[in-house]
């Protein structure tokens, strides 16, 4: 006697539950746990940044729309100020004093002069530091005896505090200082406009060129030696290897270095403040902000806000149009 097992139809078949690999569940759980720990560890840093950066920026912007307390020129009474709207910005950007053009020598007329001085220092110092830093980086990238000692020695100027560097070059550029002795000149380096500007530029280049050199050196070390060897086999000259291999491959690190230094010079304060006190047309935007604080916090808030927006705009142009993206550079470097 034969027994037949009835076939189960597809309609009545019990669906099979999807099988999950134990390793995948463990990996997902680990990723969630790591994300929570990362958030918990980053939270104190984010709170600290909000306290020391976000709050002062918001407070400065709020103050920039308020009037400074002082005597009313019409009534002669002391007033506490109040809402000023965009009057502070009109005062600085339009060089307006009570609806009229500011006379020479007033703070309103000094704004565009400080802006021009700041960008002059930025353009000249960044160009010189980039050229010299690239040259130093190429030398330090080669293999020779004593390379480690030279790399350590290059860090010495950069490690010196800016205030100490400024005071050091202040004595060097004095009328009876070592610069005039070596050159055999009698130049008032900090007593006239262009000598004072070039004294500040030389001081800044001496201090921060090693910073540029080290950042560019990091980019040079990511270029494989095989690329240069292949170019030599193909008959490429030294100039062709530099323009066709070195510059394109080191561009991410180079642009990040230029971005850092540009933003740093746009906020320059220590060197001109100590060497010249901002005299002889060496007043930068940061010096102007500090000087204006003594006159009124709200008006200084407008200048500081304009300075912040200027720095932000320059950083945006570098990252958006010139490719100075530190995150992108690090990602591309990790893929090589």
CATH class of the domain at 115-293 and 303-335: Mainly Alpha
Distance between the termini: 74 Å
Average pLDDT confidence is 81
| CATH topological fold name of the domain at 115-293 and 303-335 | MetI-like fold
Q: What is the CATH architecture annotation of the domain at 115-293 and 303-335?
A: Orthogonal Bundle
Please indicate the percent range of residues in DSSP E strands (runs of 2 or more).
Answer: under 5%
Question: What is the element layout, followed by pairings?
Answer:
Blueprint: H1 22-64, E1 66-67, E2 70-71, E3 78-79, E4 82-83, H2 87-93, E5 96-97, E6 100-101, H3 107-141, H4 147-159, H5 162-172, H6 178-183, H7 193-220, H8 225-233, H9 238-266, H10 270-275, H11 285-293, H12 297-321, H13 326-335
Antiparallel strand pairs: 1-4, 2-3, 5-6
Helix pairs in contact: 1-12, 3-7, 3-9, 4-7, 5-7, 7-9, 9-12, 11-12
